[in-house]
Amino acid sequence: MLPPTCQNLNPFILLIVLLELLQLPLIVYAGLPPAEYERLQELKAVEMSKTITDADRSSYLSEDISNLMNNAKKISNVGKLSKDIYTLEGNLVMKVLSSKVSKDEAYGEAKALNMLQELEKSGRVKIRSRIRRMYFPAIIMKKKKGISLFSSDVYERANEKERKAFKTSVIDKVCEEVARIAQSSGILHYDNNPDNILLQFTGTSITSVELIDYGPPYTYIIDKNTDKQKIVDVCAASSVWTLLW
C-alpha cells in the first residue's frame, strides 16, 4: 500500500517516480503489448506518419512563423515529444515539437489536426537550443476547454468509491468520443493518458469530453465505416486505463 502522502497523487506522476527509483526510462512503455497491436490491426489502423505523401510534406510546416513568438506565452514544456507549448492571441495554442520527433511524425500531427478541422496553422519557429538558435516544427490550434480528471476539484473531494465511478465514467465517455471522431474524420485517437482528456463538469456530472494531442506514435488513420462498437471495444481494452488511470 502507498503511504498516505502518495495516495492522492496523479498515477502518471507516481509512474514516473517509480521509473526513476528503478532507473528505468519512460520509453519502456512506449511500445504497445502484442494483443493491442493485434486489435489495432483488426481495425486496419495505420500509424499517421506512415500515411505522409509528398503533397503533405509541401502543405505543412514549411512557413517560417517565428514572428508569432513575439507575443507567445509559454505554458508548458513537459511533453516527451513536444519541446514547448505556448498560448497565442485569439485563444490559440502553439505546440513546438521536439527534435526527437521525425519529420514525417511532425507532418502526421499537422495532417491529423487538419483532417479534424482543428489546425489553424503550421510552420517552423526559430528557438534557442542549448548551443544555438535553430528551427523546430510548430503547430497552431484552438485552445480547448476543460481540465484533467486528476486535477479537478470534483475528483479531489471524492471518496474512493466515487473516484472509481468517475474513472469508469471517463473511460465510457472517452471511448464513445474516440469512436465518434474516428467515424467522422477517419482519425483514431489512441493516446488516452489523463493529460490528454479534458473534462468539464456540472456539479459532479461530467458534461463534456475533449481529446487533445494527436501526435506520434498513437494516432492512426482508420476507415470511417469501421463498426462503432469495434472502435469502442478496442479503446476500452487499451492498457493505458490500467497503467495510467
Automatic annotation (TrEMBL):
Chain segments annotated as transmembrane = 12-32
Under Gene3D superfamilies, the record lists:
Phosphorylase Kinase, domain 1, Transferase(Phosphotransferase) domain 1
Q: Does the keyword Cell membrane apply?
A: no
Which key words tag this protein in UniProt? Membrane, Transmembrane, Transmembrane helix
Q: Which InterPro entries match?
A: Kinase-like_dom_sf, Prot_kinase_dom
Keyword Transmembrane helix listed? yes
Write down what this protein is called. Answer: Protein kinase domain-containing protein
PROSITE patterns cross-referenced by the UniProt entry: PROTEIN_KINASE_DOM
**In what residue span(s) does the Protein kinase domain sit?**
37-245
Position of the signal peptide: none
